[in-house]
Design brief:
This protein is about 60% helix and about 10% strand. By secondary structure, it is of the alpha/beta class. The protein folds into two domains: about 325 residues, Up-down Bundle (ABC transporter transmembrane region fold); about 250 residues, Rossmann fold (3-Layer(aba) Sandwich). The strands form two sheets. Strands 6-7-8-3-9-10 form a six-stranded mixed β-sheet, sandwiched between helices. Helix 3 runs parallel beside helix 6, helix 5 packs antiparallel against helix 11 and helix 7 packs antiparallel against helix 10. The longest helix has about 55 residues. The two termini are about 60 Å apart. The N terminus is likely disordered. This is ATP-binding cassette, subfamily B/ATP-binding cassette, subfamily C.
Length: about 650
Amino acid sequence: MRRSRQRPAQTAPADPPRAPGAAPSDTGSEEDLTAPKWNFFNDELVRTGLWTKLTRMPALTAAAAGWAWRANRRDLLIALGASTVAAVLAAVSLVSVTRVLDALLAPGPLADRVGAALPAVAVVAGVAALSGAVRLVSELALARLGPQTERLVELELFGLTTRARLVAFDDEEWADAMYRARDRGVYEVPRMVTATLEGLAGVVSLVSLGGVLAVLHPLLLLLLLVSVVPTGWAATRAARMEYEAQRRLSTGRRRRWILGDRMASRDSAAELRSYTMRDSLMADYGALADRERETMLAVAWSQTRTRAVGGTAAGAATALTYACLGTLLVAGMMPLAAVGTAVLALQRTQGQMQSLLYLLNRVYESGLYFADFTEYCALARVRTPAAPTAPPPARLERLEVRDAVFTYPSGGTPALHGVNVHVEKGETVALVGENGSGKSTLARLLGGLYEPQEGAVTWNGTDFTALGPAVRERISVIIQDHTRWPMTARRNVTMAQGCDPDRLEHAARLSGTDEVVAELPRGWDTLLDTTFASGVNLSGGQWQRVAGARGFYRTADLLIADEPTSALDARAEARFFTTIGEHAARTGAAVVLITHRMASVRMADRIYVLDRGRVIEHGTHAELMAVAGRYRELYTLQADAYSDPGRG
């Protein structure tokens, strides 16, 4: 049962906050590390007994078998059939051993008894050889099935992460669920499949061996259960302890992984050294690692005590079983040959029972982690956009935002409130405002990446939610926080496997990427990642040119440029803003421009000024400069800074 966590109201930044898991936030006090306030999982996890496991087994095994069936049904059937045959052969072998004992313990000369036992011995040997061959077939099928199932589950996971709404990545619950699913949930499915098939074979073998014991004496079945239940209880309890600890540590482990990634990443290496962050980061990382170590050591100690209790009880029950066998023999209730067979059958059955309990525990343990994967899948499907209900969008005539209200999952105050904006075909519209005013959030609404909680965003009068992802195919974006993909320079521009040489050349010329590529050792085929052989690294300004080329390369009706020149030098910046107009004129695309360079928005057909998530002014440059408003204030501040050499 999930206990809802009351969070205090807080002011959400108008520009998008960093998604949980995207980068480590300020650590704060030592208390934040030892008793992290960012751990939002307060589930009341109940302890699970053997009976509960048995009742949940059908659903868990059905889920595992379903993934395996989709991965490769032939290997699944071969593994299941071979495991079942091997289990039956184990019972046949025991029956053959009984015949061997009967022959050897019968009255008469030893040579005659040995001769009479030889056929049964031959059967035992043949069954053992056949059983070994069948198990090899089963193991081969399972070995093939594992990676195929894992691949299928991974594709499902990433299929959901890439389809989910962008706002999901700003949610703490989503980030933790995705981490647990990737960390272990995905990889537990093959283990579940293997354990399930082995468990089914174990049930068949146990039924066969139990039948042999029942024939010898019904009391033996009861004694068998008494001897193995303590071990099963201990294994069940120990597994639950570990899972509860793993779940409690999931948020801390994610944070530790992020810190480790930043300490080992080239992108953060320069800043880490410039600000001498090594000692503080190592302290943060060490505190998290110590907390995890202490938790797992405590779990290991508790598990050891639990297993010791179970082992002691199992030993006492086994001693009782053999005492009963001795009593039956002395009382003449079982012949010596039957007692010998019973001892062998009990040993095999105890081993099979313990193995079956272990497999049951393994299936359930894997099921707990697999449930993290299914939990994330359910969470992701809820956050996946609904299927389009309108035809694919036509060429842009008018894009409009009406009374839009948008709030991030982490905040209580809307990042946008009552916003109205429109963009006409071929227009250049600028969004200006101070940091946190909501410009980037509004740009994401215009790009179809976010959906307002209130109001609407429409393309030619049709709501974006009805158009679905197809609307994004008509939109191109250039963002400040662009991704540096570990791919070739060409792929970093085209963002696809195919390439139109003419469009690529045009995009490179407009953005200045042609100058960057001309200096690369292998031109467009150069890998832009120094962690791979022959890879190279680009400067921030060079990467921003590549990001600009991405936006120009795509054939789109709308180009959204969010701070596209923040890392460019003055000459490159001037060239870029000139080429945006050239690109718009050539393609007929509308342009939405977000920049702090006020001089660069003068040519816009319309300028929207935002403040704390609201549009407070809009009009042309001349209209806004004619009134004493925020735009004129910001523009004048920058103009004065450039004109007065004593300022700045």
